[in-house]
Amino acid sequence: MPKRKDLKSVLIIGSGPIVIGQACEFDYAGSQSLRSLREDGIETILINSNPATIMTDPSMADHIYLKPLNTKSIIEILKKHPNIDAVLPTMGGQTALNLCIEADEKGIWEDFGVELIGVDIDAINITEDREKFRELMLKIGVGMAPQATATSFLKGKEIAQEFGFPLVIRASYTLGGAGASIVYKQEDFDEMLSRGLEISPIHEVMIDKALLGWKEYELELLRDKNDNVVIICAIENMDPMGIHTGDSITVAPAMTLSDKTYQRMRDMAILMMRSIGDFAGGCNVQFAVSPDEKEDIIAIEINPRVSRSSALASKATGYPIAKIATKLAIGYNLDELDNQITKSTSALFEPTLDYVIVKIPRWNFDKFEGSDRTLGLQMKSVGEVMGIGRSFQEALHKATQSLEIKRNGLGADGKGYKDYDQIISKLTIPSWDRVFVIYDAIQLGIPLSRIHEITKIDMWFLRQYEELNFLEKEIEKYTIESLPRELLLEAKQKGFADRQIAHMVDCYESEVYNKRSSLGINRVYKLVDTCAAEFKAMTPYYYSTFEEEIQTADGKRYVENDSIVTDKKKIVVLGSGPNRIGQGIEFDYCCVHGVLAAAECGYETIMINCNPETVSTDFDTADKLYFEPVFWEHIYDIIRHEKPEGVIVQLGGQTALKLAEKLDKYGIKIIGTSFKSLDLAEDRGSFSRLLQENNIPFPEFGVAETAQEALELSDRLNFPLLVRPSYVLGGQGMKIVINKEELESHVVGLLRSIPNNKLLLDHYLDGAIEAEADAICDGEDVYIIGIMEHIEPCGIHSGDSNATLPPFNLGEFVMQQIKDHTKKIALALNTVGLINIQFAIKDDVVYIIEANPRASRTVPFIAKAYKEPYVNYATKVMLGEKKVKDFTFNPQLEGFAIKQPVFSFDKFPNVNKNLGPEMKSTGESILFIDSLKDDEFYNLYHRRKMYLSK
User: What's the pTM value of the predicted model, to 2 decimals?
Assistant: First the structure.
């Protein structure tokens, strides 16, 4: 049956600010969904309060409401748009589902005659109410772990007495495992039970017998109105049960499951989806499988919505789940839709993978001092990376190289643990770096059987690790000159980086690169095509690998490369890698706009990124997508293959910026601001000389490389001092110190964690007001796109501050200084593109804190508030296509826009929640107010000093 004719206007509910457990994968899903509806001529109305994402861009929907996600906002929108026919709540994570249920309970959908599509309320209620879900599963013959529901403390105690320990407590109606915990001992039970009951919005918990050590799997399903079901992807968790799937290393396709059990699991998943309702849309099902020959299957849960794993599954297979789920919700059947990649097969065709995907989460524990770093049922990661390879080993290596935690892959970088007790402890208590520790354990000679006994990770994965270790030991026997071609090729096929091989044979990375180039061991690029090359694919979505040469009958030798280089002029945009605190979705927004602007200027656009959650890695955002680590070796090979006009580094945050020096050294053109200018802004000494020459005030400062130098400097600069390392983002390692003891301890700690770093010591302007400006400069003219004033005093990181656009109490004299300084600095740095400058204002004098000639965290916020595509303009300036004076700027904002940070402290209950110069927020929302008399502003202003810490 084709599209329903009666659906003319659809409301989509977004997921709001990014928090741990619900990140930008839902913005990716929502963006795809909006595009899918518009293709069919349906009017789209979006509510979402997150200004940092592409999803809330004016081009994405017909009407966008950057409003708080509550029923009051829903009623306002429905009154304004009485023509809305339906609401699609399955794209906005748990936030959207919960809001949809609340609106249903209040009778709002019924009052306005709005139909729910993509899911039905009964399905949500059955899957969220763990008792109803359990009863349904038993009725249809699907196994469940022994479990019971508690709605009171007393009932919980009775259940624990009956089941015995270890137990799992899960709170109902929560996301990211909030309120979930494994309880090993009776004495910990009371606290965990109280916490679960408190966190659940309906004060209900499910208590299960813990299936520790069982293997965990996820299936992604789609179903249409005719009850056709396709299984898009089977994902295996390398970490066994007991670690939240969002914190687990996951692999696709499933690696250690017998075909017979996989078929049983498929049948169960389809039965489960059919049993919860007859809606058309997407579903995610999680299972546990016993680690013995019987392979018993037990259902964990089913989510009748696009899930965190749907984004991963979409990128893993090339099958755009959210886009197709939306089509199904508006009435299409699977066999009527094209496969988006081949364009010749139907969407009813299940994807097959001829490669392996490995996802590794990215944590930010360093931002939460005193946090419990143990991994468990409650999700703690802030982002993730995905590696694609021809084997598990290659994909695992590429994923570890993508994490940006100063590791070059598994082992062979001198950074592994050597201490037996420490390794055993890290294996026993699951920690964020266990993926590396397994390798260290094997290197130390700990038997695989012992590692398996402690971690319960399947032996197949451990043997893969062991093979890598054997290969490393074999290579170490040679020098770079004597290393045989077959060993070098094998190392590259298994994902070892040139840097790692250089470490093994004790030479420079460039020597390994030159050797493999001379031997013809070069990267080739393969298509992600959904069909294991059975059909011709139309989509340029690539990953790299290494292959042995093929010899034809006539003696011709070659390696097959799917990536055909065109003769068009090309631009590479470097992505921002995994999400983390300090570098989030806003940089992905900038990258996508950069790609679109370069395409408008007639360039073939090439995107390099490794984050599966985002719109930049969608297969039809750029002309070519290379899903590769933002890691020098991979980038250099792509650039040599494609020969672009240049590379854009100023849109991908610190990740892309850090590669500017290498690009410059290798003679690759950086588009926009040159490396020299980028480096000048980071080098505090040179930057301060530039400020002096331009008569611009800045706090007194000094640069130290040792603790002794720092102590000597403190006599000249006077306390309090702001101490920070150079070349970091999100205020990493920044702290305000008030005496010599604090200074010495902080400097020693910093130099241990970031060796060879220059530390900057500034006199801290106590009680100053902080402001920042973003501008576009073409080398001649400067246009200030926005000036924001922070509500909190100077000393709280700009990413953690509530900030108003425009400023609310800076006088004309101060504003003029800000404008003058911004223009002078942008021109003095020879900025071409975007620049962000931060100021401290004390006694009506405007001091410069820092300048960053790149896209900043606030650019998307200003673009949304003023309804202007600033990144598009800046990219055209960077490319030399346009000058600042070619644009007609027309910002539109009545009243004020306030950027409000959102924190995820609830994941770390015992952490110090004080704010300071190091950023801790995971996301942000936007609030529009008409005047400063608004209650929300009044409350923010009165709380501004509450969390300031030194």
Answer: 0.93
